[in-house]
Please model this.
Amino acid sequence: MYPKVKPALARAWRDRQTVQFGVTPAHAVVLGPVDTATGSFLDRIDGTRSMELLRTEALAMGLPAGQADELVRRLARAGLLDDATAGGPRAQAVRRRPETPGRLGPDLASLSLVCPEPGGDLRGLAARRELRVRVRGSGRVGALIAAVLAGAGVGRVEVLDGGRVEAADVAPGGMGAAGVGRLRAEAAGALVRESAPGRAPRVGERSEPGSGPGSGPGSGCGPGAGARPGAEPALALVVVAPRDGLQAWAPDPETAAGWVATGIPHLYAGVLEGTGLVGPLVLPGVTACAGCMERERVDRDPAWPRMLVQWRSAHRRRGTAACDLGLSTAVAGLAAAHALAFLDGGFPASTATRWEAALPALHWERSAVRPHPRCPCAAAPTEAGADVGAEADGAVVAS
Model:
């Protein structure tokens, strides 16, 4: 074991005997009591020394016998400890990739906060590499989502869209000006390859023989989406980010019927008339689907179906959509972050919830999306993940 205090959390002394790791309340931890000598010893727990060497150096600094082991145990209980050798063969495979320390260093630091066990960051990144995600849409929102997911280490990112890239699709981080006129499928594939930190895994390739990601969202770092040897992995998530923002605002139940029937989670995102939206993340059979949303709208407004037909017809004839670059970038970033949180095993705030922000004020507002009793999706009456994501008011105190 080569213990290492997690470098992602800034360290400061609250008083002479109390150390706080982390600035923000979501992940900060307070450790105490810690005397001055023990506090100085913290700097040596940096992943370059074995436990045996740490014990020797602790004694040389005048610390009592067993103090090094006790401090390491306290750090581990508080979720503050990493191990430069932990994680098993899958983590070691990630360590050996040349892109890991450079391109993916910030992603690993972030994963170390949500995967608190030693080596959890590397296992989480290895799990991402084995996942397959599909993005439907290659406009200002969809293309950027695909690029972010690929750049964050998701191994297989597919983009589905028809036609050719238009000048209005060009956006920083998404489609480039050089791609205008190309088939969307070709341009999107090139964007994903350019954004990825390394080559995509081949079909059937695994980080460790006989292993796969975790068992599902909330189980740790990475849902169970691995493939049988030699087979393409199942879809872990579909991100619905159509160029026509109306299709994200009022999604078509027929389009989503196959995902609901086969249990494929899907997340909606888009911009319509200067209003950005992220969510809901639909967990088939558990949370509300597109059919639930449509039925609920009809219950509230009987004229909805008539207007929707007119709006969809008008959007097919309309030229340039009102999709502000700043707003579309914010929507794509938030949607990609929510997608990654789900892929890493959590329930993001978009689970059974839609978030909206309209120009010019851009106040993000949330609205719950509830299962409809007459929808055949058979979603449970209570929504999973409704309370997930609530932030703590202050730092966790560890003894």
Notes: Residues 207-220, 222-227, 382-393 have pLDDT under 50 and may be disordered. The chain is about 35% helix and 15% strand.
